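Dear colleague,

Thank you for sharing your sequence with our group. We've completed the structure prediction you requested, and as agreed, I am returning the results in plain text so they can be pasted directly into your records. Please verify that the sequence below matches your submission; if there's any discrepancy, let me know and we will rerun it promptly.
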Amino acid sequence: MTRAQLFEQIQKKQSFLCVGLDTDLNKIPAHLLDTEDPVFEFNKQIIDATKDLAVAYKPNIAFYEAMGAEGWVSLEKTINYIPKEIFTIADAKRGDIGNTSKLYARAFFEKMDFDSVTVAPYMGSDSVKPFLDFKEKWVILLGVTSNEGGKDFQFLQADGKPLYQHVMAKSKEWGTADNMMYVVGATRPEYLSDIRKTIPDHFLLVPGVGAQGGDLQEVCKYGMNAECGLLINSTRGIIYASNGEDFAEKAREEAKKLQGEMATLVQSI
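Please find the predicted structure tokens below.
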């Protein structure tokens, strides 16, 4: 998917909502456990309920890997079910030496046809660039994460600036705003102004709105650019809004609330 196509979807749906599909067999409604593929059935109903509100879906690959071969089948069926005009994110957090990264890229971009994959930058350019060799595919590089351990390294000072700023400044040389995005946690919106000085044009994938306490208005105040430039991810607050037979209906209600807020913000661009 191109940048223009993504922005077109944002404008059309008046939304920059990304729904996380972190589907856990221990959390999905009990009545689905009797179906042939409970994980896919859950995802299918969530997608059906939210596809007119979301511009992206983000399965966290660990939830599928943990189930072995069956999990990969459920994931592939899920990706094939998502409408082609909706942006897909493999939240895999890969990043290894060049020849290994190339194989990871082939797995997610060629075999599974994801539009993007999350990548860890710690091993440097040769671990990231193989993902950038694929036309109309995206790298989403970990920038500032919202987990508690993110403070261990990301905010270490070097030459008067935190390490994450050095990572962003260097990594933006590897790709462009047309094939690279950055993860910036919603629970750290105060850093977005400085981040935008370094990467003014790139899209940011922002997890943490909803159950993790991130504030949508604050994120948009400091992070939005002329082409929106944001994909706001919500997972638990949407997909686990109910554990009953009305789970898809309740998921839609929560997604609609976020989309309603987003519509006003998109109109202001």
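Summary note from our side: The first helix runs from residue 3 to 13.

Kind regards,
the structure core
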